[in-house]
């Protein structure tokens, strides 16, 4: 009888241990993502049911994560402002980075990879790289020597390549805020897409182009520095304007302007229905014509439309008190007549959010078809209010409502708090496994010579649902957090272990029952 009791005790113990193992596995899956980061964890908050994984670190100024048709993962390292190498790398199965293409002019903002061909958008040009390594410039002479460059390319459902082109200045007037490039390119200024008639406002500053003298310069809109405008002056339109969305055939023919009047159309994305969307970064409170409280804008792109630069923000005239800068008068209109009344944006985000390349949620991730947008935020956030603007991923619903999706537990760049989280997220893309991948530009700080970009501080993140196993293996050998095989239970997972334990317990119980009947 003692043997029977002992055997019964073993059966109960097997079931109990199996139950604890299974519950323990489920509890591990409820923590904030797999261990990652210097301190063994990730300090990023996401909604219940989602988890965050740090996939790669040590990147230099990454601006894009993208995938080819086979599901392989590529990362663009932009080169910053020339502080690093502008290159395209591929994430290998062991999570090492393999260079794919180099020799670009920084900044390299983004690429399209398809069937072994690469279309790259780097400063002033669009370049095609063939599978055999041969390269050819498809578009050159883009007006990218000022504040903003040509931005992310995207392949449209019509087979054309679309990309945005930013403005040379903050608000159409070259000033002392443009010193980073003004002395090297004194003739650079903004160019409109069609002829415009100016009011004739001019802006007076010191002239840094005359060394050793305290001279002043008067500069007009859409003019080189120190060149004034006169009332009624006509500014001629250009076939390669600033502040525009372009398209071109994949072979480089047919370049044309789709829409214009943007300040910096940074991110472009086509949704599932074939509509093109753009994230337009708003004006700053700086320069000869500062603008206060100008939001960022999310727009569906309407072919041929003018979107308001330089006299409107989010469909509203700048010449009103709400856009008064911290110092200086309310910005007055620069154009005597406007090409049209610009459309209102679908959604607005706070000033200086600086959204990057965005994407739409696929079925299965949750929030189907909502926009997911990375917010780079202020480059040098010095106040709590500024820190709260960036270092996060926001979700924009189809009714235009903006809400946080993934945020640092302490607002602002993680390095300012000593945490493991976002610095300046620059791009999001949904992968073939249904997860959201995020590139983070890395650490920026103010030094003796101004803004400094710190190399090798960029990262790649992966945000996934806990409850769903990926439909296919994650690209590049990226582990699938939440999949039972990654929980330390082998291919069975916690549920399988519990079932196996129950089976052994049941067999042992049946054996005990038979033994008892024989003894009776």
Entry summary:
By secondary structure, the chain is mainly beta. It has four helices and 33 strands.
- Structural category: mainly beta
Strand order of the largest sheet: 1-28-27-26-25
What form results from the Cα inertia axes? globular
Major sheet details? 5 strands, antiparallel
What's the mean pLDDT score?
86
Q: How many strand segments?
A: 33
Radius of gyration from the CA trace? 28 Å
- How far apart lie the N and C ends? 11 Å
Helix content range of the residues, please? 10-25%
Low-confidence stretches: 1-40, 470-474, 476-520
Strand content: 25-35%
Tally of individual helices: 4
Write structural notes for this entry.
This protein has 520 residues and is mainly beta. It contains four helices and 33 strands. The strands form ten sheets. The chain has a five-stranded antiparallel sheet with strand order 1-28-27-26-25, with no helix packed on it. A four-stranded antiparallel sheet has the order 2-33-30-29, with no helix packed on it. Helix 1 (2-28) packs antiparallel against helix 4. The termini are close together.
């Amino acid at each position: 009888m003692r043997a029977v009791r002992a055997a019964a005790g073993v059966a109960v113990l097997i079931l109990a241990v199996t139950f604890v193992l299974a519950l323990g596995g489920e509890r591990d899956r409820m923590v904030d993502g797999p261990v990652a980061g210097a301190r063994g964890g990730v300090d990023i908050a996401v909604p219940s049911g989602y988890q965050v994984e740090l996939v790669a670190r040590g990147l230099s100024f990454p601006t894009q994560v993208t995938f080819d048709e086979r599901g392989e993962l590529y990362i663009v390292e932009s080169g910053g402002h020339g502080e690093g190498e502008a290159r395209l790398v591929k994430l290998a199965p062991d999570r090492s980075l393999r260079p794919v293409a180099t020799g670009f002019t920084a900044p390299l903002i983004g690429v399209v990879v398809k069937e072994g061909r690469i279309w790259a958008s780097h400063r002033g040009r669009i370049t095609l790289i063939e599978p055999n390594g041969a390269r050819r410039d498809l578009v050159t002479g883009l007006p990218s020597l000022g504040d903003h460059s040509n931005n992310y390319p995207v392949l449209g459902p019509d087979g054309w390549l679309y990309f945005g082109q930013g403005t040379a200045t903050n608000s159409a007037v070259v000033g002392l805020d443009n010193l980073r490039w003004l002395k090297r390119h004194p003739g650079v200024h903004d160019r409109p897409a069609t002829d415009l008639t100016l009011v004739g406002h001019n802006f007076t500053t010191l002239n840094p182009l005359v060394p050793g003298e305290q001279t002043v310069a008067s500069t007009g809109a859409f003019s080189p520095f120190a060149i004034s405008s006169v009332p009624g002056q006509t500014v001629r339109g250009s076939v390669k304007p600033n502040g525009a969305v372009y398209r071109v055939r994949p072979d480089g023919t047919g370049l044309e302007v789709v829409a214009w009047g943007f300040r910096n159309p940074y991110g472009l994305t086509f949704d599932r229905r074939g509509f093109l969307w753009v994230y337009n970064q708003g004006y700053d409170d700086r320069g000869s014509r500062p603008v206060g409280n100008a939001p960022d804008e999310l727009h569906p792109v309407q072919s041929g439309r003018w979107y308001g630069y330089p006299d409107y923000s989010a469909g509203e005239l700048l010449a009103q008190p709400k856009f008064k800068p911290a110092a200086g008068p309310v910005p007055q209109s620069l154009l005597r007549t406007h090409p049209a009344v610009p459309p209102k944006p679908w959604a607005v985000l706070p000033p200086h959010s600086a959204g990057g390349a965005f994407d739409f949620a696929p079925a299965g991730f949750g929030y189907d078809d909502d926009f997911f947008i990375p917010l780079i935020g202020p480059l040098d956030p010095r106040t709590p209010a500024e820190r709260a603007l960036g270092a996060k991923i926001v979700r924009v619903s189809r009714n235009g409502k903006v809400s946080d999706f993934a945020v640092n537990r302490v607002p602002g760049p993680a390095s300012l708090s000593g945490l493991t989280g976002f610095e300046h997220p620059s791009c999001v893309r949904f992968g073939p496994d249904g997860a959201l991948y995020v590139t983070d530009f890395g650490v920026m700080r103010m030094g003796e010579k101004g803004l400094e970009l710190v190399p090798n501080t960029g990262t790649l993140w992966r945000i996934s649902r806990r409850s769903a196993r990926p439909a296919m293996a994650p690209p590049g050998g990226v582990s699938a957090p939440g999949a039972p095989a990654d929980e330390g239970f082998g291919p069975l997972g916690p549920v399988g272990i519990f079932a196996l334990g129950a089976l052994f317990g049941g067999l042992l119980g049946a054996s005990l029952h038979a033994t008892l009947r024989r003894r009776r």
